[in-house]
Design a protein that fits this description.
288 residues; 2 domains; two-stranded antiparallel ribbon; 2 strands
């Protein structure tokens, strides 16, 4: 791997460790350890595994590392920042310093992924797919036929897949707010969870066709994104208050902005499809 790619891998390990450290500091300095803080902290800690998955993609030179890294960096800053700031007063100094360092790591990850040519030249491989050729059936790298559209669509796909968990987290937090004194609001929480599961299933075929360059898939993603914001943000404000709207609605809004950017149609400069790579022909037998 080039030195810049090795530096990116080291930075990803550092970011994963910094995420865990900042969350543990926030938990130690939190004035109260309720159900909501436990859910939000657990979800933020899971992001450290996301950075480890990103390391796997980077080591193998996968093109999907760019959109995955971008959405991880953006949502991690929002997810960790919402826990550092307390409900009242100023955040503790260790947590604030840790958050600043974590933000610098996330910015560094995004810069290395998108602004360093050697890293971009390394992240060009795509997942293998089963192909049928003259030589038989085998696995071959599945390069996209519309590279410009696929790059933006991959980013939208990574952002869209975060909708369901970003809605499940505040819904679970609201369970602690409605139980046991506000049982009349419990049906709305159940519907909120059901809506999150439904959105996750609806988005699956949409993003598949989005990556394939279908224009209707981009329109469908825009419609679903606006519907998700119209449902999630009011529920956050009603069930969790302004504090919940900022803490839980902010990460979803950030992911939605990234998805809406990626769902826009891309016009190719030539309008010609790039052919898929051919399988290598078998070598002819030679007579000594």
């Amino acid at each position: 791997m080039p030195p810049t790619v090795r530096a990116l891998v080291a930075l990803l390990y550092t970011t994963a460790a910094a995420t865990v450290a900042v969350e543990l500091l926030n938990w130690a300095y939190a004035p109260e350890h309720g159900f909501g803080l436990a859910v939000r902290t657990g979800w933020a800690l899971l992001r450290s595994f996301g950075f480890l998955i990103l390391v796997w993609h980077v080591r193998r030179g996968r093109a999907a590392a760019k959109p995955l890294g971008l959405i991880l960096a953006v949502t991690t800053v929002f997810a960790v920042g919402r826990l550092v700031v307390p409900r009242s007063g100023v955040p503790p100094l260790p947590g604030a310093v840790g958050f600043v360092l974590l933000t610098a790591c996330c910015v560094g990850v995004a810069v290395l992924l998108y602004r360093v040519p050697t890293v971009g030249a390394h992240l060009v491989r795509h997942p293998n797919r089963l192909v049928v050729a003259r030589g038989g059936i085998g696995w071959q790298e599945g390069a996209p036929r519309r590279p410009a559209a696929a790059a933006r669509a991959l980013t939208a796909r990574a952002a869209a897949f975060t909708y369901a968990p970003l809605m499940v987290v505040p819904a679970l937090v609201s369970l602690g707010a409605v139980l046991p004194d506000r049982l009349e609001r419990l049906p709305f929480v159940v519907l909120w969870l059901a809506f999150a599961v439904l959105v996750g299933n609806v988005l699956l075929p949409i993003v598949i066709f989005l990556v394939r360059g279908r224009r209707w898939a981009g329109i469908a993603l825009i419609v679903v994104t606006l519907l998700v914001l119209a449902v999630d943000l009011p529920l956050c404000a009603w069930l969790l208050g302004l504090d919940g709207l900022i803490r839980d609605g902010g990460p979803l809004l950030a992911a939605a902005v990234v998805a809406l950017w990626g769902a826009r149609p891309v016009r190719s400069a030539t309008g010609v499809r790039v052919p898929a790579p051919r399988a290598e022909a078998p070598l002819a037998d030679t007579v000594p």
